[in-house]
Specification:
251 residues; alpha+beta; Arc Repressor Mutant, subunit A; Serine Threonine Protein Phosphatase 5, Tetratricopeptide repeat; 2 domains; 4-stranded mixed β-sheet; 3-stranded antiparallel β-sheet; 9 strands; disordered C terminus
Length: 251
């Protein structure tokens, strides 16, 4: 078995490379090289790699830095990068967490639900991509992954509601809200899950929380699309923490 066949690269929540369950320590340049290649399923041109990682250097120096990085990996017996002509790619034998979540999320958004999609609710897979890294290519990929995961969680919630699997549906809705507390659509699917299982009180509390956050942080009111979910629900006038029932009045 080669080293690559026993390797796992994690980018969600921070960078880590494990080989045969042992953590591998890498320099920042090597970390960025592996991270950059792992974010593309296809081969990446050497010129692009040099520009992304050593853009403040001359072209000659950047190519020299790339050759040095590849040599260091070979010297460490880390066979995780394949050379394809004038391009590079991460070995297909390396398991990458962000690729796994991307595939599951993409299938969900195409309407293809599989039980493994519930793995998207695992805390480690809900983490931010490479937090603390501010390279331009990281910022772009971080936002792309954030949007993909948000849409996937909302789609997962809707699908589980349709299957009458309300417990996991609520968890998916909560995950979407936690991932982005200012996003109305996350609160909306969470409210749908609560209402579908007959828990109007939780739906009302969720609406009130969003209304408070939207007013305080964005200076806006909830849209008719989310407000209309409560059109046929008995209004619960509650304390701020939704724990003190005051009265029941119809909307």
């Amino acid at each position: 078995m080669t080293v690559a066949e026993r390797s796992r690269l994690c980018l969600l929540g921070g960078f880590s490379l494990t080989v045969d369950d042992a953590m591998v320590s890498l320099s920042p340049h090597l970390q960025r090289l592996l991270a950059l290649l792992s974010l593309s399923e296809a081969s990446v041109a050497r010129r692009y790699v040099c520009g992304a990682l050593w853009g403040d250097s001359t072209e000659q120096h950047a190519h020299g830095s790339l050759r040095s990085a590849l040599w260091k990996l070979r010297e460490s017996h880390l066979d995780v990068i394949e050379l394809v002509g004038d391009s590079l790619r991460l070995s297909a034998a390396v398991e990458v967490d962000v690729r796994t979540t991307t595939r599951m999320a993409s299938r969900l958004l195409r309407g293809q639900f599989e039980e493994e999609a519930l793995q998207l609710l695992e805390p480690n897979l809900l983490s931010e991509l490479l937090p603390g890294w501010y390279d331009e290519w990281v910022l772009v990929e971080r936002e792309r992954h954030r949007q993909l995961s948000l849409h996937a969680l909302e789609a997962l919630c809707e699908h589980l509601i349709n299957q009458s699997r309300f417990g996991p549906a609520v968890l998916a809705g909560l995950a979407a809200v936690s991932r982005e507390p200012l996003r109305e659509s996350g609160y909306r699917v969470l409210m749908k899950a609560y209402l579908a299982e007959g828990n109007a009180f939780e739906a009302m509390c969720t609406f009130d929380r969003y209304a408070t956050v939207a007013a305080r942080e964005l200076g806006i009111a909830p849209s008719p699309r989310i407000s209309s979910l409560l059109d046929h629900v008995v209004r619960l006038d509650t304390a701020d923490d939704c724990g003190d029932h005051r009265s029941l009045t119809p909307r």
